[in-house]
Specification:
It contains 10 helices and 23 strands. The protein has 384 residues and is an alpha+beta fold.
């Protein structure tokens, strides 16, 4: 095995965090170098203020600080550059002239290593398959993240469904307009109290929902679909949840009933097709076959903007773990699935000027099928 390097800030780099299982806000470097007699020696270099904590958490033959590998020319005053210089010196002392890095290696490290005469080779597949095959421990963390995510989904959907509608059809809660921002704030508080965080959730009402990633803004209205898509990260385990439901306050338009039925049937077909050895392409085909059979289109977002009617404008799903979006994809170019993949299954239909419907579950791929981690109902009525 040749020498390898992974480096960066673990609070920002999930691939690096996965390898060292140590959360820090400063750069670190994790190296695999020749250890003699054909063995591999692992070295983790961290800031001195992190040393004691790192030695408790990181599994490595050596956990040290940059000063242990200071080059003759000394360190840059830039903390990231200095860490890269220490990594280069460590590799040099172990006789390494070529090192393999994953796709996340910062350009600063690659540059410093090159200046030290060490060739860097990027392996785009390094760590990808290992992260895809989730362990039983990882699956339990994802199960918990999805459980909390479902709680947030329920909160948002019930908040919308149980609001009052004024004469203009605008939803109100305690006399004030119920806006996407207000629902989002309630979700944020719910998640924060449980140790979760993340970006801006999708609470997209009416025509805004026709753009599948519109986060939503302004007042919500009765009789219109609201897409609620929440994808938080557990700050303890770093594993994510991801769930979507569509809620309607009051009477549901007939067109929306048909769209929702097609989406739920497509989700069931896609889920039934999932098992180890099947490709993401085949799963997506099972999903879109139902969409087309129900009389709807499967088009690009650009085609949808042209007003071609309700259509599915994205893939069926994606991998999830320490990042919300991970390999593999359930899409026209989707690769073969493996046991341990954790995937979203989230077909949707969208019509410009009207809105959209999306329903999303999280599944774990097994040898003979998949396990659905979701328990929430699929329906659009959350008033009960």
């Amino acid at each position: 095995m040749g020498a390898t390097i992974r480096a960066g800030v673990t609070q920002q780099n999930s691939a690096l965090f996965w390898k060292v299982q140590f959360s820090a806000g400063d750069p670190l470097a994790f190296l695999e170098v020749p250890g003699g007699e054909g063995k591999v020696r692992t070295v983790c270099i961290v800031r001195d203020v992190e040393l004691d904590r790192a030695r408790e958490k990181v599994r490595a033959d050596e956990v040290c600080v940059p000063a242990d590998y200071e080059p003759e020319s000394g360190f840059s005053a830039d903390r990231e550059v200095g860490m890269a210089q220490a990594a280069a010196e460590c590799l040099r002392r172990h006789g390494v002239s070529t090192v393999t890095a994953d796709r996340t290696l910062p350009l600063s490290f690659a540059t410093v290593l090159g200046e030290a005469g060490i060739k860097v080779v990027c392996d785009l597949e390094m760590g990808v398959m290992e992260r895809r095959r989730k362990s039983a421990w990882e699956i339990e963390k994802l199960r918990y993240s999805q459980e909390v995510t479902e709680g947030a989904i329920r909160l948002a959907c019930e908040m919308i469904a149980r609001a009052e509608a004024d004469r203009e059809g605008v939803l109100r809660q305690e006399g004030d307009e119920l806006t996407s921002a207000r629902v989002r704030a309630a979700v944020n508080l719910f998640l924060m109290e449980r140790g979760f965080s993340g970006p801006s959730w999708i609470i997209a009402g009416g025509a805004q929902g026709a753009s599948c990633h519109h986060t939503g803004e302004g007042a919500l209205r009765t009789g219109e679909p609201v897409i609620v898509d929440i994808f938080p990260t557990d700050q303890g385990s770093h594993y994510c949840g991801d769930c979507t439901r569509t809620v309607v306050h009051g009477d549901v338009p007939e067109e929306l009933v048909a769209m929702h039925a097609a989406v739920c049937e497509a989700k069931a077909a896609g889920t039934a097709a999932i098992r180890a050895g099947v490709t993401g392409k085949a799963v997506h085909a099972a999903t879109t076959e139902v969409i087309r059979a129900r009389g709807f289109g499967v088009v690009t977002p650009e085609e949808n903007k042209a007003g071609m009617g309700a259509a599915m404008t994205h893939g069926t799903g994606h991998g999830i773990g320490l990042d919300v979006h991970e390999p593999p994809l359930l899409a026209p170019d989707g690769v073969e699935l493996v046991a341990g993949d954790v995937l979203t299954v989230e077909p949707g239909l969208y019509r410009v000027g009207f809105g959209g419907v999306r329903v999303e579950d999280l599944v774990v791929v097994t040898e003979d099928g998949c396990e659905n981690l979701n328990r929430l109902p699929e329906g659009m009525d959350w008033s009960g």
